[in-house]
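Hi V.,

Quick status before I head out on leave. The structure for the redesign project is tokenized and pasted below; the design run finished overnight.
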């Protein structure tokens, strides 16, 4: 077995380097913004609905989903892309952020439909 054939599989495997960490941190901060938005809605919306006399229409399931969806979807993206090169890993995480954003918009629409009823 030559030295080239032994080194080929090792070179083909992506390494966990500084670029991957930087991409994960930067895109993770964007995902954290969606998490912050979900938590703030979970804390503020029930109080606002109570002030309006609509406390019985609080969409608890939607509010809970808006808190759980961003970290779960981002983690799934990171798991799916873990063995890919950094550029493809970045694209997978960007796609995960797009899914988080569309899920967030869908949850906002569901919450408003439940409140307005």
């Amino acid at each position: 077995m030559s030295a080239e054939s032994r080194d080929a599989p090792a070179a083909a495997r992506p390494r966990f380097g500084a670029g991957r960490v930087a991409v994960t941190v930067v895109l993770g901060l964007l995902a954290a913004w969606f998490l912050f938005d979900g938590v703030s809605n979970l804390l503020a919306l029930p109080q606002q609905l109570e002030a309006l006399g609509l406390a019985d229409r609080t969409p608890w399931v939607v509010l809970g989903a808006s808190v759980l969806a961003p970290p779960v979807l981002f983690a799934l993206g990171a798991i799916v892309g873990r063995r890919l090169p950094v550029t493809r890993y970045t694209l997978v995480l960007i796609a995960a952020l797009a899914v988080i954003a569309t899920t967030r918009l869908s949850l906002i629409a569901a919450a408003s439909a439940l409140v307005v009823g």
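Above is the designed sequence. The chain has a mean pLDDT of 91.

G. will cover questions while I'm gone.

Best,
W.
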